[in-house]
Amino acid sequence: MPPVLFYAADLVAIGLLTFGVYLPRHRRRDLAVAYLGVNVGVLAVAASLATSTVGAGLGLGLFGVLSIIRLRSAELDQEEVAYYFSALALGLLGGLGAEVGTSAFVLMGLVIAVMYLAGHPRLLRRHRQQTMMLDSAFTDEPTLIRHLESLLGAEVRKVTVQRVDLVNDTTLVDVRFTVAKGQRAATGDHDRVADASVAGALRGARP
């Protein structure tokens, strides 16, 4: 089968992944450009390697090197890392598709399907994670959990204390929680650092 068919399949696949799955959900133009650029770059290099005597081994090595460079260059959340690896995988499958055979098309479709389903907003949508800076120093875990549940209006599943500052009276925690059905969490849908002192002040001001 002509290699150009695999190149075209890769371009279609990365287009679907970027413009059909990633952008509608995350709206980050910079990462969309990065995914496209990485994919096409890997496609070009892998296609060149496929026609040489180097073989697919160096292509897999390239996959690892690019992964290390990209992951160390900027902070990405785990979902964005998954899209990045998917873009790399699609590029390799497209570039080395002539050696892999028609199964490359199936694998490309599998990558897109997994990313579409695993990142779907309706999948585990009640489960959240937040990193929060609390305006009190908590050394007792049950008390900390009750305070978090009061702030979030949700059931805390797991809490990890990252830092307790007794001098400044603050606690930095990573909390995993589940919001009630039909209820929205007080701190939003995505991972971010939240200043819980503001939320506490608002709650204290209520009549």
Automatic annotation (TrEMBL):
Stored InterPro entries: DUF4956
Keywords carried by this UniProt record: Membrane, Transmembrane, Transmembrane helix
Transmembrane region(s): 6-24, 31-47, 53-69, 81-98, 104-124
Pfam families associated with the record: DUF4956
Protein name: DUF4956 domain-containing protein
Organism in which the protein naturally occurs: Micromonospora rubida
